Predict the 3D structure of the following.
Amino acid sequence: MRIKLIVLFLISHLLIGAQISDFEDVDFTKAENLAKMNECTNIDNLPLLTHKLTYSLSTDIEKFRAIYFWVCHNIKGDYYQHNLVNRKREKFKNDSLKYITWNNAYKKIAFKKLREQKKTMCTGYAYLIKEMAFIAGIECKIVDGYARSFETNVNTLESFNHSWNAVWLNNKWYLCDATWSSGYMLNGNIFVKDYNDGYFLADPILFAKNHFPIEKKWFLNDSLKQKTFTPEPIVYGATFRHQIIPMTPQPLYSDVIKNDEVTFTFKALDDIDINDVSLVQVLNKNHRTFKLYDLKNNDGIISFNYKFKQKGTFDLHLKIKNDIVASYNFKVKKS
């Protein structure tokens, strides 16, 4: 029996209402240059800093770009706070009231560190974006929820662990995550500055691959608001850099029969050369590349097939160039 995991309904469902940036023709050079010119400016006077970043810009999107770009390039992730908060979440995971009490008290310490050292974690990033946007006359909200990665909230949403922003531009809400745009934690104790523009005004369907708001209205997509959480393939920062939306296989875990074909599809929001697409298995840091069949690009929907010829359990990774952008688990049975 040949297994086909392409579901036409699913494909059309993903395409309907997909929010593409309305600002593709806007030149952000001036906004970014203003952010660079004010590098290392203190944040003890936010109105003055915001004025310097935005006074000569004529549109809200340029002003917000200058604010976002400055925050992402000048605020560092704080591994100490990150680890401390994670330990407290684990300690109080069965007593949310105690965690909230502790967190409210700790915020004073965290915001003091943000002002004095320009170091913070997600709540500080989201707070700073919101306050500076407010000063610039732009409506912006903090969105609280669950971040999903290869080590957190994989199978269930059990750790309420992240905050990001929704911003109102040209009569429309957009989503962004300054924390993950600014860089990443290496080995849990080193912050690596590595700006990722893919989290700026991100497509809601792509954003929802690893962001789950407590208030479902902040999915900004009616179909996602009605959806209950099920484990889907793991995505990464590179998924946002390359602007792809994994589509099928839809679940993270799939059972297949030996010699059956599985069809992989993803939507490319930017141009992608299909010769840069590969499927690999990581074994002791070595990448084993699998042979793909029927690799094609149909108007931005890229698809290929793979036939499992051996029994066993396989963690497979979709790659674009040298970057892993989605991870799947397959259990292959004889029959």
In short: Confidence is low (pLDDT under 50) at residues 1-18. The domain at 8-16+242-333 is CATH 2.60.40.10 (Immunoglobulin-like). The chain has two domains: 8-16+242-333, 29-220. The radius of gyration is 21 Å.
